[in-house]
TrEMBL record:
Binding residues for ATP: S217, G218, G219, V220, D221, S222, T223
EC number: 6.3.5.2
Oligomer and partners: Homodimer.
Naturally occurring in which organism (per UniProt): Chryseolinea lacunae
Record-given protein name: GMP synthase [glutamine-hydrolyzing]
Active-site residue list: C75, H163, E165
Length: 505
């Protein structure tokens, strides 16, 4: 595997994505928690960073610890190596952000083998390597960056100022392949098939005859995780699917049916009334999230106790949730508490099994496909744990849920019928806590407003509002107003994230 050391760049996860796309396993670790360099680590990549190596407290690492394996510094990583070995890193004279072209390329160097002259690279840095010591060989330049890439002469150490991990660097993947495959000698044998085989084998060994309990949500991650555990231990996996009364229209029954169809040992629990009671009169978003999370734990705990001798709790946690991200600006402010069931493992005193905790989201989908899971489940939009509870602004009642379910079903059904569902990353409707005046026939109406939201995104961290066709929006709007009693106005949300968030609460 390849070890990626994170210095806080926004692109670190992308480096890992690209390496994995080469069928090479890699892990990200924070720069200040370097794991032992065991023989299975074949190379190290140092990420970029928003910091400057010239600052006293900038993140650093002693690269002599990696003398047995090849090292590639990217951007800040390259500056750090140059700085440590006697080079000069200074603020750039001109802004070096965006596309550039390599106007000299040393093709004799293994890292740049078959990288075209004039190839486009992506620059994003405020400092630049002004000079390197004699022990360095410059192997690529751009018209404005004299040290675009270097090799330390008698060490297996390279540095590149540009970002090979972003797609704007046209041949970035080839460069990473040169490093990971040709220089580090990694076998390209990390595939979904291989992941499935080794994971099932290790789950069998780890879980033996133990009983495992798992909460399923109908989402991609928990479903794929459950199928893997099920393949390993069969009926010893007990799945629970809770109807919190905040799901989409008919979703509970549909999802339950599809789980049964997959052969899972699943129990559906109707806890709608408990959730509505816990939410009664709550209007503040975080208070609602807490009430939903707490009620979920209570219901799940009660159900789990009905199964005798449970030892493990299975979870669909994925890699981005476990990467310890390096926050250079101190702890970040909690905008929304997404992890609504964080207290579950502690309360239940169970051991945790998380078969997907080394995978990125799109890798989970590929594994799901390998496992033969229905593509409609694998392609589902993300849906928040608190469900419609955070899409009904203000207090939640069963009546409001029913209205919103109808609106949501028309919108999502419309997206599917028009072939737009897979073109957006997430979509849904919000029930606003306002009424507006309208006219229907000859009568004045005074009813609710709903806002439709559809976004494009890759990871939900940033998002743009989806530019859905006007014709489509017009049809959905009149369908909603004609069919959903209690709604007389539909608006479309045209805010991107940031500054808005995807959910309204
Ligand atoms: P925001 O609204 O923060 O949403 O832009 C980003 C993504 O996270 C989902 N989301 C949640 N998921 N519990 C969840 O499991 C939550 O409390 C929660 N809040 C937001 C949201 O649907 C989007 O995909």
């Amino acid at each position: 595997q390849i070890l990626i050391l994170d210095f806080g760049s926004q692109y670190t996860q992308l480096i890992a994505r690209r390496v994995r796309e080469l069928n090479v396993y890699c892990e990200i670790h924070p720069f200040n928690k370097v794991p032992a360099i065991t023989p299975d680590i074949k190379g190290v990549i140092l990420s970029g960073s928003p910091c400057s190596v010239r600052d006293q407290n900038s993140p650093t690492v002693d690269i002599s610890a990696f003398s047995n394996v090849p090292v590639l510094g990217v951007c800040y990583g390259a500056q750090l190596i140059a700085h440590q070995q006697g080079g000069n890193v200074l603020p750039s004279q001109i802004r070096e952000y965006g596309r550039a072209k390599l106007n000299t390329v040393n093709h004799a160097n293994e890292l740049l083998k078959e990288i075209s002259l004039d190839t486009q690279v992506w620059m994003s840095h405020a400092d630049t390597i002004a000079s390197v010591p004699d022990t360095f060989e410059i192997i690529a330049t751009t018209p404005s960056v004299a040290v675009a890439a270097y090799k330390v002469k008698n060490q297996k150490v390279w540095g590149i100022q540009f970002h090979p991990e972003v797609t704007h660097t046209t041949e970035g993947k080839n460069l990473l392949r040169n490093f990971v495959v040709h220089i580090c000698g990694c076998n390209q044998d990390w595939t979904a098939d291989q992941f499935v085989d080794t994971t099932i084998a290790s789950l069998k060994a780890r879980l033996g005859n133990d009983q495992v309990v798992m909460a399923l949500s109908g989402g991609v991650d928990s479903t794929v995780a459950a199928i893997l555990v099920h393949k390993a231990i069969g009926k010893n996996l007990h799945c629970i699917f809770v109807d919190n009364g905040l799901l989409r229209k008919n979703e509970f029954q549909q999802v339950l049916d599809s789980y049964q169809h997959m052969g899972l040992n699943i129990k559906g629990v109707d806890a709608k009334d408990k959730f509505y009671a816990a939410l009664k009169d709550l209007t503040e978003p975080e208070a609602k999230r807490k009430a939903i999370g707490r009620t979920f734990i209570e219901v799940f705990d009660e159900e789990a106790h009905l199964i005798s001798d449970v030892k493990w709790l299975g979870q669909g946690t994925i890699y981005p949730d476990v990467i310890e991200s390096v926050s250079v600006n101190g702890p970040s402010q909690t905008i929304k508490s997404h992890h609504n069931v964080g207290g579950l493992p502690e309360k239940m005193k169970l051991k945790i099994v998380e078969p997907l905790n080394t995978l990125f989201k799109d890798e989970v989908r590929v594994v799901g496909k390998t496992l033969g899971i229905d593509p409609t489940i694998l392609g589902r939009h993300p849906f928040p744990g608190p469900g419609l509870g955070i899409r009904i602004l203000g207090d939640v009642t069963a009546d409001k849920v029913r209205i919103l379910q109808e609106v949501d079903a028309i919108f999502i059904g419309g997206l599917r019928d028009s072939g737009l569902y897979d073109k957006v990353w997430q979509a849904g409707a919000m029930l606003l806590p306002v009424q507006s005046v309208g006219v229907m026939g000859d009568e004045r109406t005074y009813e609710r407003v709903v806002s439709l939201r559809a976004v494009t995104s890759t990871d939900g961290m940033t998002a743009d509002w989806a530019h859905l066709p006007y014709e489509f929006l017009a049809n959905v709007s009149s369908d909603i107003i004609n069919k959903v009693k209690g709604v007389n106005r539909v608006v479309y949300d045209i805010s991107s994230k940031p500054p808005a968030t995807i959910e309204w609460e």
